């Protein structure tokens, strides 16, 4: 007698139709610009006008963030970005923990019409070093 509720056995071979996270990030990085930590520090020192957005989770932001950053978790970016950055030609710098999620977020922001969006290379971890 077989259990009608039993799950089928997992396949022994993997056929993948979509891209993995690393592939999505690599693709996004071909379409976006990245800003280095020294460049960001120079911008801050020179008073360059830009909006800095932390796309990590609120708990990560609460544990520490770059001064002046606004928290918009990546999962809410499409809903909240227009409220934080009204001018789609304004300079926007996005960062996450290591630079991958912010690359995806920058790609999304460009798709939304933002023309001057950068992802912080290395993210929070590089900043905190």
Per DSSP, the total helix count is 6
Tell me the series of helices and strands, N- to C-terminal.
HEHEHEHEHEH
**Rg, Å, rounded:** 19 Å
**Under the CATH scheme, which architecture would be assigned?**
3-Layer(aba) Sandwich
- Going by helix content, strand content and strand pairing, the class is alpha/beta
Structure description:
This protein is α/β, with parallel strands linked by helices. The protein has one domain (21-128): Oxidized Rhodanese, domain 1. Helix content is 40%, strand content 15%. The protein is built from six helices and five strands. Strands 1-5-4-2-3 form a five-stranded parallel sheet. Helix 1 (21-29) packs across helix 5 (100-111). The longest helix is centred in the last third of the chain and has 12 residues, at 100-111. It is globular. The model has no long low-confidence stretch (mean pLDDT 92).
Any key phrases for this structure?
129 residues, alpha/beta, Oxidized Rhodanese, domain 1, 15% strand, globular
List the helices and strands and how they pair.
Elements lengths: L20 H9 L3 E3 L1 H10 L4 E4 L3 H6 L6 E2 L5 H8 L6 E5 L4 H12 L4 E5 L2 H6 L1
Parallel strand pairs: 1-5, 2-3, 2-4, 4-5
Helix pairs in contact: 1-5
């Amino acid at each position: 007698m077989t259990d009608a509720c039993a799950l089928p056995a997992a396949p022994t071979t993997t056929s993948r139709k979509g891209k993995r996270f690393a592939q999505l990030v690599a693709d996004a990085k071909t379409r976006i610009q990245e800003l280095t930590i020294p460049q960001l520090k120079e911008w801050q020192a020179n008073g360059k006008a830009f909006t800095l957005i932390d796309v990590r989770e609120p708990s990560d932001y609460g544990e520490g963030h770059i001064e002046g950053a606004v928290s918009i978790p990546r999962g809410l970016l499409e809903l909240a970005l227009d409220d934080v950055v009204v001018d789609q030609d304004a300079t926007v710098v996005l960062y996450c923990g290591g630079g991958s999620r912010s690359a995806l977020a920058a790609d999304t922001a460009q798709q939304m019409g933002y023309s001057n969006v950068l992802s912080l290379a290395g993210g929070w971890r590089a900043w905190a070093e």
